[in-house]
Write a structure and sequence with these properties.
185 residues; mainly beta; SH3 type barrels; OB fold (Dihydrolipoamide Acetyltransferase, E2P); 3 domains; six-stranded antiparallel beta sheet; 1 helix
Length: 185
Amino acid sequence: MAIEAGDFKTGLTLIVDNDPWIVLDFQHVKPGKGAAILRTKMRNLKTGVTQERNFNANVKFEAANIEKKNVNFSYEADGMYSFMDMETFDTYDLSADAIGDNKYYITDGLEVQLVLFEGEVLTVSVPSTVKLTIAETTPAVKGAPSTQLKDAVTETGLTLRVPQFIEQGEVVLVTTADGKYSSRA
């Protein structure tokens, strides 16, 4: 299916230079002279490289056939993360590099989505919030306001700032978009 540059929207996946790309941001620009152009910020789904590119508004692209598959995280060993499809019981192994910073949000049994292009696993998509257990943090400072934050480390190795009342062993909700504390679980 052909997609015109004028029909771009955030989150659209398409084929550019034989690779799947996702549109992160775009802007229609009409200069004083000449045809309109489309300024885009895109990420290559195979390499993870983000680029800003300009296209003529009448250029056509092919839609990327991106498939998402629900799987559960099984285990991590030697930098390889193993996931299982709970319907077919197929297993998928991904390196820590392919997962990127999402490794800080993946815990045992967590349901995630694998992003596939032409049968090849590209990356993992995690939920918008996850429950993580605080592994290390300093004790609360007596008399400190509850709005004051302190450092904490989760069971997955994520370092974040939490309120003073959070103690070691507590389960908290963390937003995966920015890696920040949301609330107690």
